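PROTEIN SPECIFICATION:
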Amino acid sequence: MSGDLAGVREVWAGRSTARGTWAQVELLYLVVISILVLVVPALGSVGGLLARPDVLPLLLAPAAPTVAVLAVAVAAAGAVLVGGTRGPALLDPFLTTTLAGSALRRRTVLSRPAARALLVPLGAGLLTAAVVGTVLLESGVASGAELAALLVAANGTGLLLGLCWLAGELLAPAARPLLALGVLALGLVLALPGQAGPAALIPGPAPAGAVPWPWALGIAAAGLLAAVTGWALLDRLRGAVLLEQSLRWDAARTSADTGDLAGAAAGFRSPPRAGRRLPAVGPGPLALLYARRDAVAWLRSPGRSALGAIGVIAGAALLTAGTTLVTGPAAVIAVLLGTLSAWLGSGPFVDGLRHAVHTLGAPALFGQSAPVQALLHLIAPTPLMLLLAAAGSVPIALLDPRPLEHLAPALLLALLLVPARLRDAAKGPMPLALTVPLPTAQGDASVLPLLAWQSDALLLALVTGGALVLAAGLGLPAALAAAALIGALLALMTALRLRALRA
């Protein structure tokens, strides 16, 4: 078997775009030099920038270690769910059919792509630990030994996250949510206050010699065991799952290369499986009928709807925390992350708006034109977004004596995200003028207009969240006036886009 794979590798290495041995050595040298010359000084600069009086209390708060452990548990549960859509062990469709579907052992064929994918959780964990540790080291709170222990533990954590990712690819659809819930429950147990656990790895004021090396080395050893276990589990991956994910990823990559990021994201939406017998059509007024259709669509994709609801709730909580509990860079990060989370979470609830735009120009089979359908599809997601935003923002705002003003940004953002999604759905094809090269002294800058066009909806959402937070600082009337102005602009831009599509 190894001889067969050696022959395949020989043929693969003979392709025109293959890197030779010296090219690979040069690439490795470039990566190492870039880390030493660019990444390490950048970490020092970030540490010095964030070592501020308004940031350090957040990292040194008694609840910070517990929050860190819970964040890792949430990331592990998310990795399990993501593995069902795009796992770490993935090849191109041709190689999946010819190699993974052959008599070769799957671990032999899939080891390299799985190892490359493992760099994602490893890099994310190490980068996060390095930033936090550098901030505490620059402020004189942590020692070099504590930073080293944190990096060792982050390495093991990244390997454990990689195993969770692979488990999501390996398990059946019904078992993935159970494993995700189990991982969350384990995280809750390990994050319980008052016990010596992984939370002790977060550096902070501690007696000399209290570096938690046993926990750090234990997590690192568990990570190595997870890597070995994952390598053995590669043989148990199902060929149908490998081919399905490979085809989906290849189609999404093709759509992204052509500039259709929305189409690339749509390729990862799983078809509805639950609630097939729920009636989407029934008697009643037209407005309630459209609301019922949207609600049934949400129930038919419970996992996607649940993730969207969690995203909106978490985004509202972060946005409210950014206006009440923190200041400085932490507030800016909280507002940006909260707006991003709310925007992403709103996606599952606006499929009706997308459908209404897609019917533009088609015969009105049910008696409603596309603009009327879009207005009717606004009825259900708007109150739902408000309820979800209130669920995330009210508990945070109650910690401040002025809850009404601090609730305004999250609630108004949730209200504006629905028409913003309608504007995004009416975007239309990419203008060909954006593909014209833009020669500059630094090279071709044509990618910048392309990125701006692709991410205009997200950028507009971020600007909206920031504007609402700034307006709320001037009072509730200012926030309401800003929301009314932004809503009018969204309505105008949507009408112009619909007119352009109709033409």
User: Anything to note?
Assistant: DSSP finds 21 helices and two strands in the chain.
